[in-house]
Please model this.
Amino acid sequence: MASSVVLFLVTKGVDWVFSEHDAKVASEADDKVDRDGPAFTASVKADTEYTEASLYDAPFTDAEKAQVVGPPKDLRPFAKAHHARGVYLSDVWHPLMRSPWWGYSQAWLVDIISDRKAALVINGMRAKGVQCTPAKADTVIVSRGEGDGGYEGMLFDLTRSADVPLITGSESPDYGKPYFAHKKIDLGNGASPGGLRVQVTSGTKDCTWKAFEVTYADADGTHTQEITDNGKPFSVHGIAEHPAQMYQFTTQEIRECVPAARGRMDCPEG
Model:
């Protein structure tokens, strides 16, 4: 009887050991599968709504100027016919950004999603492989937009650094400070997707870059992954160091202004 009990216990013990081993192997296999694929996927869309200015590659002729200057009007047909590029300015011109140049920015809405079971944290982002040439645009019409659609935001000022994005969003107490010194993006383990509005300004240059290189950390250490513009490089347009023409769109009129130092303009009082 005793030997039967011992045999039973030994058998159960062996079964338990093997079941624990199998469970561990299965768990490790699941972890490997979880880590083998991309840490996240990113959906990228250019933000072209409610732009605050439009850039043109050539100054207006007298006939074109006559179409622009005067009472406020819908300039969208004119902008389309002249291949204008819609841009933003509020964050670039904000005093807390301390930008050396009153340039213009372009923006992308980036939704970052991770289906990993394990948690990970995005703690860095840079524009990778930046190449620039003097800006082609030498004419601008400045107006104002209506906000950023509720996305948390950052601004890369390529006139200073391609590696340190700055915090945007007027309600943030850390506005204008390095983004990842004050914030991080949690993903995986059921975390909500991260939505970002990424702006880039390039001052007096037209710039392209291969991708945004994202740095993230998980249980295995620190890694990088790239975000492209749907498989293509990103590009941003600046304005010439010495603009030919600058215009201001107000609620009363559209008027021509005089280009001033560091991208600013002097506009006559209406």
